[in-house]
């Protein structure tokens, strides 16, 4: 059988044009249509957040859960720290021993006194008040060196000139460490002035001779009032001037380096017991009575 080669060669080959056209048409259909001139493009469609696993709502929920877990963990850690601090014993605080304050006044082993004379003088008791001014020296005064002699002469004006001179020599008025006075309104019937003369420390040994000279110089005065706890101290009643309406009493004592005097005066008859009590308080401030033998 003879094959018709001419017919086979004459059949046309399939054209690719329609397939290409079909693909082009599909691409054209898939591409969004260009907006018409003068119109805004339509917004892109927004995917449904409920079905989108990567949606914003899902992320916020996830972040919220993470924040809660962090807060719980942080709170737990803080709570544990607080409980640990409460359970731990407090560290001991070192407390330094208080430093004792040195006394403002006192007595040295040799019997001399330290501290300002204004502090050695008896403070005004609560039942009294500061008294009247001494006409020459005031009512609460630490005297200047130039006033020592005048104050001594005034304080021992009741002594004779010779007795006062001997007493002044033993006291060494010109070489005193200091002198002071304070007045007291003991009651509405009586006032008192306490004087203080401080010798130098090297003259403390002269206190017994000074005390004896005081006794000798005042021995002729009437009366004698004792001072409780201080047997060496003595009080006496100087002679009154005729017609003098006030009564008065003098007291003196030597305590180490201090010659202490008191002049009490008031309406007669004077409360000598009250005056002696004031003098006893002054001496007690300067040292105990055991040294007064």
Strand content: 15-25%
Mean pLDDT: 76
The helix tally amounts to 8
Tell me about the biggest sheet?
Answer: 8 strands, antiparallel
What's the architecture of the domain at 111-286 in CATH terms? 3-Layer(aba) Sandwich
- List the uncertain runs: 1-32, 34-55, 68-73, 289-293
Output the radius of gyration.
58 Å
- Alpha-beta classification: alpha+beta
Provide the CATH top-level class of the domain at 111-286. Alpha Beta
Return the CATH topology of the domain at 111-286: Protein Transport Mog1p, Chain A
The number of E-state strands comes to 10
Helix content: 25-40%
Structural shape: globular
N-C termini distance: 179 Å
The sequence of SSEs as H and E is: HHHEEHEEHHEEHEEEEH
Briefly summarize what is shown.
By secondary structure, this protein is of the alpha+beta class. It is built from eight helices and ten strands.
Descriptive report:
This protein has 293 residues and is an alpha+beta fold. The chain has a domain at 111-286: Protein Transport Mog1p, Chain A, CATH 3.40.1000. Helix content is 35%, strand content 19%. The chain is built from eight helices and ten strands. Strands 3, 4, 5, 6, 7, 8, 9 and 10 form an eight-stranded antiparallel beta sheet that branches. It has a two-stranded antiparallel ribbon with strand order 1-2. A hairpin with a 2-residue loop joins strand 5 and strand 6. It starts with a helix and ends in a 7-residue tail after the last helix. The relative contact order is 0.10.
